[in-house]
Amino acid sequence: MRLFKFDRLVVAITTVFSLLVGAGTGAFADTWPSRSIRLIVPFPAGGAADTIARIYADKLSEALKQPLVVDNRAGGRHGYCCGRCRQG
Fold it and tell me: What is the pTM of this model?
């Protein structure tokens, strides 16, 4: 009977300790996002799509308080850009 109470005590102490350790590690998390955001435009620079993307990027950068980079990838159209988005 005494062994049963000891097991409960060990489980209770372990649970409390793990909760305290788990709660403390959230303070060290990075802010989202931890690096600049890349906006991929599947058209060459200087066109209408590029102009709209840069206006959109400025407004979005102010709202998120994170730098936003416009990346123009002409030539492959949407297929190349979709592949780049999947790679990260």
Answer: 0.55
